Amino acid sequence: MPSDEPTPIERTASEPVATRYDLVLAVIPLTLLGGAIAGMATGIDIQTGVAAGSVGALCTLGYAIFGDPPIERGGGRQAS
Questions:
Q1: Membrane spanning segments where (predicted)?
Q2: Are 60 and 31 in contact (CB under 8 A)?
Q3: Half-sphere exposure of residue 10, counting CA atoms within 13 Å on the CB side?
Q4: What is the pTM of this model?
């Protein structure tokens, strides 16, 4: 009789734990948080620190969309 418990998925050594796009998604809020912390730690307003951090988040987003997009280069889908 089969169990209702799902079988665990095993990772192999060749599979990355985090991809480049996972890192991009992690960097965006970290730059905003870093700007807020810099605003609290220095004499500038928190809003100014977050605005400065948003520039870093925008650069990261621009890289992910335009610099190294998650699509195949060449203009179309591959035939399957």
A1: 21-40, 46-66
A2: yes
A3: 2
A4: 0.64
Residue 54's identity, in one-letter code, is: S
Q: Per-residue confidence at 3, pLDDT binned at 50, 70, 90? A: low
- Burial code of 5-24, b = ≥16 C-beta within 10 A, e = fewer? eeeeeeeeeeeeeeeeeeeb
Alpha helices by DSSP H, listed for 2-45, are: 20-41
Tokens of 40: 């609290």
CA 50 to chain centre: 18
Over residues 6-26, mean pLDDT: 77
